[in-house]
């Protein structure tokens, strides 16, 4: 017959926040280890891919790490991926160029 184990937390229910694993100690006893939820990687706000360079932690754990670990040294560092930042910069440049071209055409038509 299997050896019985006692739960360490008060809640006996099999919920996602109360997952557990039975582990055998070096002394031969069986004890319950409560497992934490797996952390998901922070995602890019535009395309949704995981952000490289930012650690995957549970939301509350981001308060304990330093600011330089939460972002990447770039514009939109901890919220957008490099590809999306590149496309934003390019789009902004093209919009400005289009405004200049429009202005030049308008001034030529006046003459």
List keywords for this structure.
111 residues, Ribosomal_eL34, two-stranded antiparallel ribbon, ribonucleoprotein, 30% helix, 2 strands, alpha+beta, rod-shaped
Q: What does this protein look like?
A:
With 111 residues, this protein is α+β, with helices and mostly antiparallel strands. Helices cover 30% and strands 9% of the residues. The protein has helices at 67-70, 82-110; strands at 20-24, 30-34. The longest helix has 29 residues, at 82-110. The radius of gyration is 27 Å and the shape is rod-shaped. The relative contact order is 0.10. The mean pLDDT is 94. GO terms for molecular function: structural constituent of ribosome. One of its GO terms (cellular component) is ribosome. InterPro entries: Ribosomal_eL34 (IPR008195), Ribosomal_eL34_C_sf (IPR038562), Ribosomal_eL34_CS (IPR018065), Ribosomal_L34e_arc-type (IPR047868). Belongs to the eukaryotic ribosomal protein eL34 family.
How would you sum up this structure in a few lines?
The chain has helices at 67-70, 82-110; strands at residues 20-24, 30-34. By secondary structure, it is of the alpha+beta class. Belongs to the eukaryotic ribosomal protein eL34 family.
Q: Overall mean pLDDT score?
A: 94
Strand elements, count = 2
Strand coverage percent: 5-15%
DSSP helical segment count:
2
Write the element-wise H/E pattern from the N-terminal end onward. EEHH
Helix content: 25-40%
Strand order of the largest sheet: 1-2
Envelope shape:
rod-shaped
Radius of gyration: 27 Å
Secondary structure category: alpha+beta
Major sheet size, sense and barrel closure = 2 strands, antiparallel
Instruction: Give the distance, in angstroms, between the N- and C-terminal Cα atoms.
Output: 99 Å
The quaternary state of the protein chains shown equals single chain
């Amino acid at each position: 017959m299997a050896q019985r184990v006692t739960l360490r937390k008060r809640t006996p229910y099999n919920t996602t926040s109360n997952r557990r694993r039975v582990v055998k100690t070096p002394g031969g006893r069986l004890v319950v280890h409560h497992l934490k939820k797996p952390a998901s990687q922070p995602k890019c706000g535009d395309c949704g891919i995981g952000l490289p360079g930012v650690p995957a932690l549970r939301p509350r754990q981001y308060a304990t790490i330093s600011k330089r670990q939460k972002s990447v040294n770039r514009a939109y560092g901890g919220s957008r991926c490099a590809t999306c930042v590149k496309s934003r910069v390019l789009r902004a440049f093209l919009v400005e160029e289009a405004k200049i071209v429009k202005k030049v055409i308008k001034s030529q038509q006046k003459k």
